[in-house]
Write a structure and sequence with these properties.
Layout lengths: L9 H9 L7 E4 L4 H10 L3 E4 L4 H15 L5 E4 L2 E4 L4 E4 L2 E2 L4 H12 L5 E2 H8 L9 H15 L9 E4 L3 E4 L4
Parallel strand pairs: 1-2
Antiparallel strand pairs: 3-4, 4-5, 5-6, 7-9, 8-9
Length: 175
């Protein structure tokens, strides 16, 4: 990604902001290569729009993002778990558990919908925002397994991240 700002580039700026804040970041740029988009999103941007674009599309994307934030909470506690999504700190029994960005997004969706079954297709859409057409269901299965391995005492017999066969997954409230 080239230096498109007078004093640096957008990726460095995103890293700098993410060091102290989870404020929403929307990158608007002429860089439209797939690698540029992936790099921007992985750096911590919430969305990436390439020029030229219509104002109607920009307004719609911002509205969708804000609507999606309405039910979110930055902190979740249950039993032995303490998840701070704002600080990206995830603890089990007081010990820090390191999660990938994808695992964090999946965990957040499950926690926000605890007690309810979230369909596989909805999880794929929410976790792989915008790239869901390129993600197969196997990626979700693998991410669920990795999350269980990190959070469950017995990942083969999970107490929290449960499978609802033929439908999706749920974060159990009765463990």
């Amino acid at each position: 990604m080239s230096a498109n700002l007078p004093d640096g580039n957008g990726i460095d700026f995103v890293h700098e902001v993410r060091a102290y804040s989870q404020v929403p970041i929307l990158l608007i740029t002429v860089n439209n290569m797939e690698l540029d988009i992936v790099t921007g999103l992985e750096a911590g941007a919430n969305d990436y729009i390439t020029k030229p674009f219509s104002l109607m599309v920009l307004r719609a994307r911002v509205s969708v993002w804000l609507r999606g934030k309405s039910g979110q909470t930055d902190h979740f506690r249950q039993d032995c778990f303490d998840f701070d999504f704002g600080k990206m700190e995830f603890r089990r029994d007081g010990r820090l558990v390191e999660l990938s960005k994808t695992e964090q997004r999946l965990l957040r969706v499950l926690c926000e919908n605890r007690g309810a079954t979230v369909k596989r297709s909805a999880l794929i859409d929410r976790v792989w925002q915008g790239d869901s057409e390129y993600v197969d269901e196997h990626a979700l299965t693998v991410t669920i397994k990795r999350l269980r391995d990190k959070l469950e005492l017995d990942s083969a017999n999970p107490d929290y991240i449960r499978t609802v066969y033929g439908i999706g997954y749920t974060w159990a409230v009765d463990s």
